[in-house]
Amino acid sequence: MRIGFISTYPPIECGIATYTKYLTDEIKKLNHVVHIISEYGALGERVHTVYNSQDPDLAYKIFNTAIKLGLEVVHIQHEFGLFGPNRGVNVIPLIYQLKLSKTPVVITMHTVYDSFTSENKLLTEALIRSGDKIIVHENYQLESIEKHIGHFDNITVIPHGVRKVEKIPDAKLRLGLEGKKVILLLGYFRPSKNFETIIELFPKIKEKVKESILVVAGDIRLNENIDYTEKLVRLINESPAKDSIKFFKSKFPQEVFDTFVSSADVAVLPYKVSSQSGIMAHFLAFGIPLVTSDLKVFTEIFKESRCGLISKTDEDYVNNIVKILTDDRLRNSLSEEALKRVNSKLRWDIVAKNTVKIYEDLKNSYFQTLPYQ
Hints:
- By secondary structure, the protein is an alpha/beta fold.
- The chain has two domains: about 1-160 and about 345-370, Rossmann fold, CATH 3.40.50; about 170-345, 3-Layer(aba) Sandwich (Rossmann fold), CATH 3.40.50.
- The protein is about 45% helix and about 15% strand.
- The strands form two sheets. A seven-stranded parallel beta sheet has the order 3-2-1-4-5-6-7, sandwiched between helices. It has a six-stranded parallel beta sheet with strand order 10-9-8-11-12-13, sandwiched between helices.
- The mean pLDDT is about 95.
């Protein structure tokens, strides 16, 4: 099958780009031909860079390329803002152009919150009604759509994929953290991540677990959130426990990224806002116990798999982190649950097979329903 992905793609710095790379790599292993239509800056085999996200004629440029490639199905990776101004409304005419050309359209909606702004609700409903098949990553996202917009039969839940990896056994030694209990904050620096809360609470954790150390590692994307990053650095420098806080700012190659993850005894996701978390998928892949905020994206996952602890207050964060650092049995149990979840439903090869099944079913039903020409 000739499958076209409309998405950002590496080396573009974007979680959607990384998602598309992992998913398409697995789909190719199933003997399908994959083309990626992406923004300028993407690179790779059968990667076609034909537009800038701010182009007013974005829809035409993408559609024209898709038609020339003779695609049998098009899979759009959707995130608000990836398709230009006004919350990326230009993706809507693109979908209808593809539909008019009798090309089946699958849309993965990476951002579905527990509640909607009026703009997000308007565009979400338009996407669902125009796409042939919609993929969301979590059951609560499907429930949110049904609650705020309505019931639709074309929505399927397929989880965010997770790599098959092996923990790096000497990760702490490589990072100079041998003998330490490592608390990890990892990812792009932005205010919604709420990393400052854990930096401010760390002295209380240090009092209870003397060998604990806080690692803050990540970078900014496209020079965004410079002020926020400077705030984190200032809080670290002013902390009474600053000698036990390690700050790393860089674009990490995969091996270095994996070394940070492998070094963690606990990873903390104190997010204020999140629809689904790609970074959480990396933590689960390595079996890292989690401490998170009480956002629904986390509470729903922990209902299915007890791979982390939910925190509603500052006191919860301190107590939960200390519990995991000091209770080997609890830490090992959370780690085992994370790996069990990964191997049963989250590995990229499983996600790819479930996604291709959607393509095949859609292609078969689509052409059966077309009028005889």
